[in-house]
Write a structure and sequence with these properties.
Distance between the termini: 10 Å
Order of helices and strands: HHHHHHHHHH
Radius of gyration: 19 Å
Length: about 250
């Protein structure tokens, strides 16, 4: 456990993932997932049938349960991907394989970061990947969402877990990073940090939507994309320098 989370690099990465979540949350997530969260919160308020503070508390509990479920899914996915990466990152005989994995992951992250930033051909390809994933999951995901969303506020937690599976360029880029950590613990914490970063935008969607215009959200997307590219460059640098001891 200590080896997986040693050194200032890991702390910096967690802050970077949190920042990607913050920038992506306000820049992208409120447009994609904000209506879902706002709709669920409104439904919780209506079903509460309570005035004033009690109704506000009901809505707040719905938000807490929803985002807790979503963060649980993110963390579980990160841990699974980090564990998968550790298979290729066995220290010793498979050391060179780990370096190749860093190189591949780094290039994919740079590609995805540029796609998120809107580089013409890459952006088109990135959207096609998201759309393809969405088309593969929309059947069962849509049915599950309809069932949970109409089952009352008590279903906010499992609904959040389900929505943690929705496709998103920022989310997929951090998932790719989690594979490269080669550690279930580091992968899970990285995804958790990203998820926590998205909470302020989504939980405060009603206020944030009015405070941030399209230009501000675009700049936040650029900032998040730049951090994703930076993490990719870091992986490539480690692949060429062979910095296995410092890698989380």
């Amino acid at each position: 456990m200590g080896a997986a989370l040693s050194g200032p690099f890991t702390v910096a990465v967690l802050w970077a993932a949190l920042t990607v979540g913050l920038a992506g949350g306000f820049g992208h997530c409120i447009a994609m997932c904000g209506p879902i969260v706002a709709g669920g919160g409104a439904l919780a308020g209506v079903t509460a049938q309570e005035p004033g503070r009690r109704r506000a508390a009901h809505v707040g509990l719905w938000q807490l349960a929803y985002h807790s479920g979503r963060l649980l899914t993110y963390t579980a996915i990160g841990a699974a991907l980090g564990g998968l990466g550790s298979i290729a990152a066995v220290r010793g005989a498979l050391g060179p394989v780990q370096q190749v994995m860093w190189l591949v992951v780094g290039n994919i992250m740079i590609f995805m970061g540029l796609a998120i930033a809107g580089v013409p051909l890459l952006a088109r390809f990135g959207r096609s990947v998201e759309e393809r994933y969405a088309s593969l999951t929309k059947g069962w995901l849509g049915r599950a969402y309809s069932a949970l969303a109409t089952s009352g506020p008590g279903m906010a937690f499992p609904l959040g877990m389900l929505m943690g599976l929705m496709p998103c360029g920022f989310l997929m880029s951090i998932e790719v990073y989690a594979v490269g950590t080669g550690s279930a613990l580091a992968g899970g914490l990285t995804m958790l940090a990203f998820g926590v970063g998205t909470v302020p935008a989504l939980a405060g969607f009603g206020a944030a939507g009015g405070l941030l215009g399209p230009r501000a959200r675009a700049w936040l997307i650029y900032i998040g994309a730049a951090i994703v590219v930076g993490l990719g460059v870091l992986y490539i640098a480690r692949a060429f320098t062979g910095g296995m001891a410092a890698m989380p």
